[in-house]
Amino acid sequence: MTYKDASKPIDERVENLLGLMTLKEKIGQLIQPFGWETYEVKDGKVVLTEQFQQQVKDSGVGSLYGTLRADPWTGVTLETGLSPREGAVAVNEIQRFAIEESRLGIPILIGEECSHGHMAIGATVFPVPLSIGSTWNVDLYREMCRAVALETRSQGGAVTYSPVLDVVRDPRWGRTEECFGEDPYLIGEFAVASVEGLQGERLDSEHSVAATLKHFVGYGSSEGGRNAGPVHMGMRELLEVDMYPFKKAVEAGAASIMPAYNEIDGVPCTVNSELLEDIVRQEWGFEGMVITDCGAIDMVASGHDTAEDGMDAAVQAIEAGIDMEMSGVMFGKHLLAAAASGRLDESVIDQAVRRVLTLKFKLGLFEKPYVDPQVAERVIGSKEHKELARQLAAEGIVLLKNEHQTLPLAKDNGIIAVIGPNANQGYNQLGDYTSPQPPSSVTTVLEGIRAKLGHEPDRVLYAPGCRIKDDSREGFDYALSCAEQADTVVLVLGGSSARDFGEGTIDLRTGASKVTDDAYSDMDCGEGIDRMTLQLSGVQLELAQEIHKLGKRLVVVYINGRPVAEPWIDEHADAILEAWYPGQEGGHAVADIVFGDVNPSGRLTISVPKHVGQLPVYYNGKRSRGKRYLEENSEPRYPFGYGLSYTQFTYSDIRISDEVIGVNGSAVVSVQVENSGDREGAEVVQLYVSDVKSRYTRPAKELKGFRKIRLQPGEKQIVEFHIGAEQLQYVGQNYKQVVEPGLFRIMIGGNVQETLSVDLTVKED
């Protein structure tokens, strides 16, 4: 059997195996049941379910979703779930049965969620992508992706449903936390790093997993910020903005793509052949696998209502370019009958199977279907990965305000009251798509601050004050009594994407954890949790106002998954830190910043409005969108690229190597950056380009480069950027990329609103 001969080319092996398969076996390769439903744990041993065993014997199973996933949706808990070692053993048993008990012995593709860490018990929980974007540190993120790939593959996971490359246009959207920000260029740089990190140099390495780009496309531009809502966008903007990061990732070699739930101009992405075939495969040359989002085919028939029934939806999807159905039943239920009735040509099924099998061969699953449980036990949640999580969290924290040099705090000066609903709630700082965690795995802000001042535990007081969402003020008195005794209040507010992990709640009057029979969720962010406002939920603002009346030094720390628009806090807090969801080491990272062991270097990748009524407020809008409202101007409270440091950086001497170039020419622009403060720090040097006159309307400014540099006090560095077609082109006539002759303004600075500029003229060659 040629397909078992590793010395043969993959194409030859695929065609040989395809020729041996029955139609039923082919369809079996296109379906993906829920992995956690394929086994049970009995007396400490993994036992495969009868249903799964029969399915393997009858037609084979192409893939499993979330075999190692643990969360309230799967019902897998710390008590019932698998340890790192046990997870590897379970996947080995699944693969053994598939290989030994099916007719052709085809291994199963194990797919897992890994947007900010492998979503399995014991795995490292890194900061959410919105925090990672705020690091502007692409190299560090690539290193994180290598760690995630290692943890996932060590248990047998071979493909991940990440990175999320959606461009955020309305931060009321609950999935804002899963995205890198609002700018396509920046997202594209992280997209490339993600593919390089996850997939490594070879997919068949024991340190690599296949990346799945999602959600293709326009998912972050839904109507009203409502999840999976319609997207109203022209093709030019779609190509320039939302599709740009995906194209960059495809060029980097991404193995898989996932279409989004939404529709664009009346066509659901799941069945949009123009996007999936004409652009992605024909224009971009993508040869990988396309997998739906969970239940997306069913949504075509019952949601979008563009299919008569399930069979029609399944046929539309596979003919549009879908190769595998994630966690749905439509392919398994309808494709066999569709082919038998002549409604679907078997050659369409063959093409999808080829792509699935090709990925399995590239991953080396036929040669190395099993993993070593000892490796999983050693690498998952390792000390090195935790240290990496702490560094990422620290670099992603953005210092928004620091009046009178309130921060950093001296470690030997006064009493600190750590107050707020996110001060000591571990799950609230992890974000969505997170597995259950033992308390010892997560360091909260309270614990991080206490660890810094461990020699004087009485100097740190704690009170929750209130919860995230409800209106109870019963904790105010205790919180105010703690604040009254303190010299500084660290008020930890924000949101929560924590699903119901059954961890109970807190006693607002004492701060103690307690178990309650009444289910209560503080979740106000995450998938499917979209909001009408960007204000703090519940009575958090009122708590801040009451504490402020005491006249104490007030440091606000936001832990959240979307921007907060609270003008009162912006005006009255002495210092504000935006920490996003910083992951399991987030409490240490916040404390590192608060006490100055780390100089903040995070910069915003999403504009923070003054009021939700300003939306959309993303920086790279068109020049024609207007200047102000009756009540207020249209500028954000904190602009894209913004972030303070404990030192100062001065920009000067911007130069360009050539003031005039041809349309195919290039130039080098440079600027001098000096650390003019008194301590070492990192600055994000940002390059923006403005096409002054163009045939089609353009944004006033567009990010086209960035570099994170580290300088000692008094140190200067010349930072250079290349300016060529990639920085100057846009989608012009007939939707083709073009560099138009004319005047361009090249700008460099520390954020989009504070730049130096130089002009560049482009002439016909």
From TrEMBL:
Residues 683-752 form the Fibronectin type III-like domain. It comes from the Bacteria. InterPro entries: Cellulose_Degrad_GH3 (IPR051915), Fn3-like (IPR026891), GH (IPR017853), Glyco_hydro_3_C (IPR002772), Glyco_hydro_3_C_sf (IPR036881), Glyco_hydro_3_N (IPR001764), Glyco_hydro_3_N_sf (IPR036962), Ig-like_fold (IPR013783). Signal peptide: none annotated. Keywords: Hydrolase. This is Beta-glucosidase.
